[in-house]
UniProtKB/TrEMBL annotation:
Binds 1 zinc ion per subunit. Pathway: Polyol metabolism; glycerol fermentation; glycerone phosphate from glycerol (oxidative route): step 1/2. InterPro entries: ADH_Fe/GldA (IPR001670), Glycerol_DH (IPR016205). It catalyses: glycerol + NAD(+) = dihydroxyacetone + NADH + H(+). Keywords: Metal-binding, NAD, Oxidoreductase, Zinc. CDD domains: GlyDH-like (cd08171). Glycerol binds at D173, H256, H274. PANTHER family: GLYCEROL DEHYDROGENASE, GLYCEROL DEHYDROGENASE 1. This is Glycerol dehydrogenase. Its EC number is 1.1.1.6. Residues 12-138 form the Alcohol dehydrogenase iron-type/glycerol dehydrogenase GldA domain. It is an enzyme of class 1 (oxidoreductase).
Amino acid sequence: MKSYTVNIPGFTIGGDDAYAAIETVCATYGKTVAILGGETALAKARPALEAALQKTSLEVTDWRMYGKECSFANAERLAEIPTVADADMLFAVGGGKAIDTVKVIAGELQKPFFTFPTIAATCAAVTSIAAVYLEDHRFDRAYDANHPPVHTFINERIIGSAPAQYLWAGIGDSVAKYYESRLSARDRLILHSNQVGVTLSGMCAEPLMQSAVTGYKDAQAGKTSEALRQTILNVIVSTGFASIFLEPDYNTAVAHSLTYGLVELPQVEANHMHGELVSYGVLVLLAMDGADDELTKVYDFNRAMQLPTCLADIDVTVDELEPALTRALQTFDLNVMPYKVDKEMYRNAILALEEYDRSRKEVIGA
């Protein structure tokens, strides 16, 4: 049997006081730090970060905007800047693209890095995997930094004050972690790491759905609350930790493959967020799998969250599905499934969901 290693980061959640943990968490990793992030993210987080850093012995070598895209070319450019290259550690401040850019830099320079998410749209802040794009914004490939961040500092005040649609999309994406990993693992002998991942993914279902509606409303109102905290933790930490323990083939399934197909349609790519589309894909997954009780549960949740429940919600007609379904079947997301998925199964599930949506709306008068 081959050995394997699983690394998970520590995390701190709170308001601005979450950054106070920098002093004890980062002390053993060196004396200098370069801080990179998005323009808006740095503007939002810098005052609290500076206040916390003043109470440490860390020297900041650079405050620098990461750019506009997580690309290998951009990461290489940043890695060659002396104030970045010579720093003992890196801080990544912002959303997924900023954090993923720092992952690539840290991976190539073999430096420890720490994350400071300013939105809760993905679990990027706790994982080692970066989604890397070309300079023209087309997807390039996934990059593994070989180690996740040492620690993630979650400032719920900053996340709660960000545009609420990021959290909305993050919730939709996170719910899929449970349903996709459970489906992928069905009827397969999965051992400890994958078992832990599937078990952790359960936090992305019932616990997340219990807090998300209130948490999202509180985010819309710009206020912190226990519901918002629990929602953020499940979007960033639970989803991310499950992803770390799960092998790639168990991390995804029907909902993500359909999403990557749907974004082939220009109106979908231009007007809809990734997590929004994934949330629709979960309903298609459940319709395809004949999981009627779970379909009802997630459908009701999507309605409460104003996430999509039918093709019209994502600006697609049945007649436009062909290129989306062709692309969906080409993705790696379907590599491990309890049954072979084909185009007819996708179409039938989508049509079944359309009929279910119509019948439910007739009953509730919506």
